[in-house]
Write a structure and sequence with these properties.
The protein has 122 residues and is mainly α. It has 7 helices and no strands. The protein has helices at residues 4-15, 20-27, 31-38, 47-55, 60-73, 86-98, 104-121.
Length: 122
């Protein structure tokens, strides 16, 4: 099943009169690898955001939409723990492990805490 990233890429190809193999060539990968990424069998390489944005001269709005599609399509996320205390690492891992079991109210509270913290930093 196509991910949001896959749907974004398919529309982009159609709009530009391209085939899967044309986009794969621009990304320097095989058609089968691009297909696997679009279908969620592989994670989207982060470098692709810039490559696709530049190759297709995406507008600011389209770049934002692409980043959102990539983020939504990720199945695995790497977390850089460098410089974090053991306590912070444990808190992050506990959140990741327990998140699925939280009710929507608790998820919303956590999201609001994080968004408010980000706003204070910005």
């Amino acid at each position: 099943m196509l991910t949001l990233f896959g749907k974004f890429c398919r529309k982009l190809r159609i709009d530009n009169g391209e085939l899967l193999k044309d986009m794969a060539a621009k990304l320097g990968v095989t058609s089968s690898y691009l297909s696997a990424v679009e279908n969620g069998k592989r994670n989207v390489p982060q470098a692709w955001v810039e490559t696709i944005s530049n190759s297709y001269s995406l507008s600011t709005d389209e770049r934002y939409e692409l980043r959102q599609a990539v983020q939504d399509s990720q199945k695995v996320v790497k977390i850089d723990f460098e410089g974090l205390s053991s306590e912070d690492k444990n808190a992050i891992l506990a959140l990741a492990r327990e998140f699925k079991g939280l009710d929507e109210s608790d998820k919303k509270k956590i999201k609001n805490i994080l968004l408010n913290n980000k706003k204070r930093r910005d």
